[in-house]
Design brief:
Blueprint lengths: L7 H13 L2 H7 L4 H15 L4 E4 L2 E4 L1 H20 L13 E6 L1 H18 L4 E5 L5 H7 L4 E3 L19 E4 L5 H9 L4 H5 L3 E4 L11 H8 L5 E5 L5 H7 L4 E4 L3
Parallel strand pairs: 3-4, 3-5, 7-8
Antiparallel strand pairs: 1-2, 6-9
């Protein structure tokens, strides 16, 4: 095995000399002195253990051994150049499965708009939409899922997050609910008013590692009545609220 200390400059000199077949012209091409070029040629010959170039009427001719090394040297030089080139992402060529964990509200309000736009630019990507389950943060950390869309204001260390949607939460009741008349008359609802009616609430899966947003915690504290329906989903709430006297809390943009 050849033990070498070849540099990028050595390889560039070797490739240039193979192409130009002149020590003087190669040195000028690379802005080297003739003595430096001679030392490089000596170093190359010692490293590979063969002459590499022989003198002829037309200059320094590469030996068969040098010609065998030439494509490998070119490949290594291209690799050096790639080290300093920023990676280029071409969505049209991307192929992989994107796994997204989200609540049903996120799937309907966000992914139904985002996924078609991505498919238009990256037609070879596949998508898997998963429910929010236990150990969400752990699955994000290990790469078992790629993204999580969830109403939260803080995440665990090591998890990157970005705010993509803001929507205030509102109390929701059916049309004609007694609370509607109280609000129109008083322009407010008290805890005593709310406590008279059962409510429906959405609960974060235990062990998910995601804290619910503060505004929903505050809203739940203002629902002192009995929680009659607990749901892991937001979307069933409108139909349940419309058919009962339940009081709910929902994102305004849902």
């Amino acid at each position: 095995m050849i033990q070498s200390s070849l540099s990028q400059q050595d390889l560039l000199f070797f490739v240039t000399l193979c192409r130009l077949q002149s020590l003087t012209v190669s040195a000028q091409k690379l802005n080297l002195s003739l003595s430096s070029a001679c030392r490089m040629l000596t170093h190359l010959r010692e490293t590979f253990g063969e002459p590499l170039f022989v003198r002829s009427r037309n200059g320094l001719m590469p030996t068969p051994g040098a010609m065998a090394l030439l494509p490998k040297a070119i490949m290594l030089l291209d690799g050096f150049d790639d080290l300093f080139e920023p990676p280029v992402f071409d969505p049209a060529q991307a192929q992989r499965l994107i796994r997204i964990a989200c609540a049903d509200f996120g799937a309907v309000s966000i992914l139904t708009k985002v996924i078609p736009a991505i498919i238009d630019k990256a037609p070879h990507l596949d998508f898997q939409i998963l429910p929010i389950e236990s150990d969400l943060v752990g699955k994000l950390s290990t790469g078992e899922i790629d993204f999580g869309i969830f109403p939260t204001e803080k995440t665990s260390p090591g998890i990157r997050s970005v705010r993509i949607l803001e929507s205030p939460y509102r109390y929701v009741v059916r049309r004609g609910h007694p609370l509607e008349a109280i609000y129109h008359a008083e322009r407010k609802l008290t805890e005593e008013d709310l406590a008279r009616w059962p409510n429906i609430s959405v609960h974060v899966p235990p062990g998910s590692g995601i804290a619910p947003p503060a505004h929903t915690d505050q809203a739940r504290r203002n629902l002192p009545g009995r929680t009659q329906v607990r749901s892991a989903y937001i979307l069933p709430q409108p139909a349940l609220i419309a058919a009962t006297d339940l009081v709910g809390i929902m994102p305004e943009k849902s």
